[in-house]
Design goal:
By secondary structure, the chain is α/β, with parallel strands linked by helices. The protein is built from eight helices and twelve strands. The longest helix is centred in the middle third of the chain and has 16 residues.
């Protein structure tokens, strides 16, 4: 996170509360009755099979999907009460990378929630953009178009944009999928930096080893909360069997593996759309040309 600190937390309690939320698409509910609480500064992994509702949860946390039931509170106040408080990094395949913007343009979008429509970026805003580019190692790419970048570089652009936003809550949807080692290491280094800055982090991942070694808490999902707690408790073999069903493989030496290929819609993928043999928790949609930009202040 840039050296300039996020807005001080003055409300009490300083935490994220998700209270009995139900979220879905059209006539279909994906998450039902989900409740959990994370203290401010917690690092949590969201783990579950394809179609479990991980991406749906993140979209609900940033207000992209309306709640059918329940409440989301940040520092005791309803979602949207805080200025640009939640940063969201979607999966790369959900973004239109042909949108004609440069790396600096995208990172600058992280400041839009802090300025009005007619206001130009100030000296502090520009400094935060520069610091964010430097921290993610992409300052030398600032004038490049985003469609010229590798997948790992694109991921680091989105991480830099989220840093520039100065959020209290950082959401990353499968940030380690399909990226190079440099980007993986940069992301892990960023996690350590966010811990020092007391930023709450939620990351969805299929990597059980990562979830068990790098996170304070694990939320195990499959349309509802299967288990929540420290990794050693939440990721027990019994809990994983509840969440993953026949996708869970236990080898002779006790090693636990997850088979997420879902060929032909097997392994209990109830919301497989039948088009590619994989599970989908939401219907297909056109990619977002606005790159998930937060609106400017009125």
């Amino acid at each position: 996170m840039p050296s300039s600190k996020a807005e001080p937390i003055v409300e009490s309690p300083a935490r994220l509360d998700v209270e009995g939320i139900t979220v879905g698409y059209e006539s279909r509910s994906i998450l039902e009755g989900l409740s959990f609480r994370l203290d401010h500064g917690t690092r949590a992994a969201i783990v579950g099979p394809n179609g479990a509702g991980k991406s749906t949860l993140f979209k609900a946390l940033v207000g992209l999907l309306p709640l059918r039931a329940g409440h989301i509170l940040i520092h005791g106040l309803p979602l949207g009460s805080h200025l640009d408080c939640v940063a969201y990094i979607p999966q790369r395949e959900n973004v239109d990378w042909n949108f004609p913007v440069t790396v600096r343009d995208v990172v600058t979008m992280g400041r839009y929630g802090h300025i009005s429509w007619l206001e130009r970026l100030g000296r502090r805003d520009r400094a935060i953009v520069d610091e964010s580019l430097e921290r993610m190692g992409i300052a030398d790419l600032s004038t490049r178009s985003i469609n010229e970048l590798s997948g790992g570089q694109q991921q680091r652009v989105f991480l830099a944009r989220a840093l520039a936003q100065e959020p209290h809550i950082f959401l990353m949807d499968e940030p380690f999928n399909g990226v190079d080692r440099v980007t993986q290491d940069a992301t892990l280094e960023l996690l350590d930096h966010l811990r020092e800055a007391r930023v709450t982090v939620l990351i969805s991942t299929h990597d059980l080893n990562l979830a068990s070694t790098r996170f304070d808490r694990v939320l195990l999902l499959n349309r509802s909360l299967v288990a929540e707690g420290p990794p050693a408790e939440a990721l027990s073999e019994a809990n994983l069997a509840k969440a993953f069903g026949s996708s869970l493989l236990v080898t002779g030496n006790g090693r636990i593996l997850v088979d997420e290929c879902c060929p032909g819609g097997h392994h209990g993928c109830e919301d497989n759309d039948g088009s590619d043999g994989h599970c989908h928790e939401e219907p297909s949609a056109s990619r977002s040309p606005d790159l998930g930009v937060a609106p400017r202040k009125p």
